[in-house]
Amino acid sequence: MARLSIPAFLLAPLALSVALFAPVAGAQTQLKIAVVNVPRLLEEAPQAKGAMQALQDEFSPRQREMAAQQKDLKTKEEKLQRDGAVMAENERRNAEKELREGQRDLARKQNEYVEDLNVRRNEELGKLQKALLQEVQTFARSSGYDLVVGDGVLFVNESLDITPQVLTALQARAKTSGVKPATPPAKPATPPAKQ
C-alpha cells in the first residue's frame, strides 16, 4: 500500500490551526476575533495628519529657499543666454562658472533635503506606528478581544472590522492630548524639480 506524503509547508499551517482551536473545542469557549485596517489608520488618524503637517511645517522653509534659488538660477541662465554674445570673454566665463556652481549647490541642497525628509518621515512613521499599535492593543484589551489581525488579511466580514472604533478612540485621544487634526497641506513636502 502506498503512503501519502504531505509536504512540511502544508503541515505547519494545519498544525498551527489545530493548536489554536484545540483549546477552544475542549473548553467550549468562543474566541473574540477582530480585524483592523492599518493603512486606513495611518491615513485617517488625527495623529497621522498632525505628524504630516509637522513635517510640512519643518521642511517648508527649506523648500521655499530652494525654489527661490532655482528661480534665481533660471534668471541668471536667461541673462547669460540673452547677453552672452555681447559680454566680454572674462565676464561670460565668470557668469557661466557662477551658474554651474549655483546649479551644483542647488542639486546638493535638493539631495540633502530629500535625504533629511526621508529620515524624518521614517522617524515620524515609526512613532506613529508605535502609537497606533498601542491604541489597537488598548482597545482590544478593553473590549475583550482575544485576537486582532492587521496586515495580510485578504477578506474580512465587516462585522469583524474594528477600524472605525479604533479611529474614534484615536480621535478622542487626539482631543485630550491636544493634537490638532491638520487639514491637508496645499502642496506636499517635495523638493522642487531638478534642472
Would you mind describing this structure in some detail?
With 195 residues, the chain is mainly alpha-helical. Helix content is 69%, strand content 3%. The protein contains 5 helices and 2 strands. The protein has helices at residues 8-27, 38-44, 46-83, 89-143, 163-177; strands at 33-35, 147-149. A two-stranded parallel sheet has the order 1-2. Helix 2 packs across helix 3 (46-83), helix 3 (46-83) runs antiparallel to helix 4 and helix 4 crosses helix 5. The chain is rod-shaped. The model is unreliable at 1-16 and 181-195 (pLDDT under 50).
Which terms would index this structure?
195 residues; mainly alpha; two-stranded parallel ribbon; 5 helices; 2 strands; rod-shaped; disordered N terminus
Helix percentage: 55-70%
Strand-residue proportion:
under 5%
Give the overall pLDDT as a whole number: 81
Stretches where pLDDT falls below 50 for ≥5 residues? Answer: 1-16, 181-195
Principal-axis shape equals: rod-shaped
The count of β-strands is 2
Kindly report the spatial arrangement of strands forming the biggest sheet: 1-2
